[in-house]
Design a protein that fits this description.
By secondary structure, the chain is of the alpha/beta class. It has nine helices and 15 strands.
Length: 370
């Protein structure tokens, strides 16, 4: 059903830390179909930063002020606050009658995610999850290769999201307190698991190894997951803050050929440097030196294989799709049910690492494995 929203849609952003200020606010502001109308933060310095970066934005101290009586009329609430607040804030916004976007991870558990999904469906409201890495350059390039059958039937998918950060930064993201939902399994792991499920469908078994490597670290900072998908593909996923030598971002082995690519999509770096989509610099374009290579029986490190021009990364496409979904002209780009399926895997991985077992997940119904 088409909803008669005004143009552009008015967005309220909860949280102006890393996620809010670097990712969400710039992408919302860059969208011709959205306007950043309000921000909530209890930090005076961040409030000043928000006003300076987005002239005319209203700043509030608490999320509930966005939907209280007399609040600015909003068409969408974006939750980019610490992980432990995602569920209560999303729940309150939905109950107030507002569509919601939540940064990953949507929740601590799949059950909580499905509870929010049910609430949104009962209210007839959009609930979407910000999984921006579906619009990374390397991921879009790999999807194109798979769609075109360039690799043949895929047998193994390796994905690495690795960093070299030998000293913990502290803060809730690295907290060992369970209620904070910190650690790399739920942080970077949310990305690599989501990508694997999008590419190869549901997982039916999960094995994981999770370690706390750095002195004074509290939460996992070096984690490995092995997934078996219902279609037989095996995914090996690595997330680490302790990788002194970085491995390939993707290594995909098929019956016909393999594809290997190194380095991270350039969009995060561009956003951190203050660049914005729609400017003079082409957005999301990888330099030729970072193009992946496709081939068989050759090493890309010695020039083997054929360079594959990278599809430009496109984070703005997420919010364009959200706006279309709100207007009833397109689907929800990332549903809460998809987020719950990824959380099933993350919960299984946590149990596997703790107990040293392989965890079996229910097989999908016929036709549900992609």
């Amino acid at each position: 059903m088409t909803v008669p929203f005004p143009s552009p849609l008015r967005v309220g952003l909860v949280g102006y830390g890393l996620a809010g200020s670097v990712f969400h606010a710039p992408l919302i502001a860059a969208s011709p179909d959205l306007t950043l109308a309000a921000v909530t933060t209890g930090n005076p310095e961040r409030a000043a930063e928000a006003r300076a970066a987005h002239p005319g934005v209203e700043v509030f101290a608490r999320p509930e002020e966005l939907w209280a009586e007399g609040a600015p009329g909003l068409d969408l609430v974006v939750v980019a606050s610490p992980n432990k607040t995602h569920v209560p804030i999303a729940d309150a916004a939905l109950r107030a009658g507002l569509p919601v976007v939540v940064d990953k991870p949507l929740a601590a558990t799949a059950a909580e995610a499905r509870g929010l999904a049910e609430l949104a469906e009962e209210r007839g409201l959009l609930l979407s999850v910000f999984q921006n890495r579906r619009w990374d350059s390397d991921f879009l390039t790999l999807r194109r290769l798979l769609d075109e059958g360039e690799l043949g039937e895929v047998q193994r998918f390796e994905s690495r999201f690795e960093r070299w950060r030998p000293r913990p930064k502290g803060g809730w993201r690295e907290s060992g307190a369970p209620e904070e939902i910190g650690g790399l399994l739920y942080d970077l792991g949310s990305h690599v698991v989501d990508q694997a499920l999008v590419l190869f469908g549901p997982a039916v078994s999960v094995y994981a190894e999770s370690d706390v490597r750095r002195p004074r670290a509290e939460a996992d900072d070096d984690t490995f997951l092995a997934l078996t998908h219902a279609n037989g593909v095996r995914s090996h996923l690595y997330v680490s803050a302790t990788a002194a030598q970085l491995g390939p971002r993707f290594r995909v082995l098929g019956q016909r050929a393999g594809f290997v690519t190194y380095g991270l999509d350039p969009q995060e770096t561009a956003l951190r440097e203050g660049l914005r989509p729609g400017g003079d610099t082409p957005w999301g374009v990888e330099p030729e030196a970072l193009w992946g290579r496709i081939g068989a029986g050759e090493s890309p490190l010695t020039g083997g294989g054929t360079p594959v021009p990278s599809v430009p990364g496109n984070y703005p496409a997420y919010y364009a799709a959200v706006a279309a979904a709100l207007r009833g002209t397109g689907p929800n780009p990332v549903t809460a049910h998809e987020a719950a399926a990824a959380l099933d895997v993350l919960e299984a991985a946590r149990r596997s690492a703790r107990e040293g077992v392989t965890v079996r997940l229910p097989r999908p119904a016929d036709g549900a494995d992609g």
